[in-house]
Please model this.
Amino acid sequence: MDCLEFRRETGADPRHLSPAAIAHRDACAACAESLRRNLALDEKILAALRVPVPDAMRSGATAAAPGSGQSNGRRGGAAGGVVGFPRIEPRRWMALAASIVGGVVIGSLLWLGGPRASLAEDVARHMSHEPEAMVATSQEADPAEVAAVLARAGVHLGQGVGTVSYAHTCPFRGEKVPHLVVQTAAGPMTVMVLRDEKVTAPMDFDEDGYSGTIVPAGPGSIAVIGHAPTADLEQVARLVRYAIQWE
Model:
């Protein structure tokens, strides 16, 4: 089982792993951490659904006496509800409110967790499209081509990032983004300039054999990806962040 198969299986049911998934979890630290995050999200969802119901509401209100105007009939007024509609008992209102609150909380948790994982996964997945670019080399890409690739995205590159050995414009999430490879002391690293992908804080990830970080920059973000493991991601991201100039 590879990392992608593991993520698919645990994404569907993180609490019941097949023998192959267990073996992969024990052998892959990145996937074990991904499973831990999935289980933590599950716990948050379960906690959101545990809405306490007062005993009086759980057992139901005392039945109204005949002729008191508290029946479930179609009467008007505060006791009978809106004319033409049956009266809803308080415990049913409580159940409805609890389900709405639970749904809102779950939706919020999924919204907060989903985009973070999805962007990292999409960046790592993009690496498989051009694996030949991630090679150690002293050959520098044509500076004019590098400038042209960046200019199409409304940016240009200052000094300090080192040798750029590859530059190409790539499709990513419906946009055209610059894809660079920068040669560093820790080996080649990919840099993707994501003008339309805004993040509020650095996002580190380990996906499909790559380590990466996505940092806020300009109106969007910059992704730096290297072969896992690497210790220079933050340094390279900092250099690129200051070297990229947005128009």
Summary: The mean pLDDT is 76. The domain at 135-246 is CATH 3.40.1000 (Protein Transport Mog1p; Chain A). DSSP finds eight helices and eight strands in the chain.
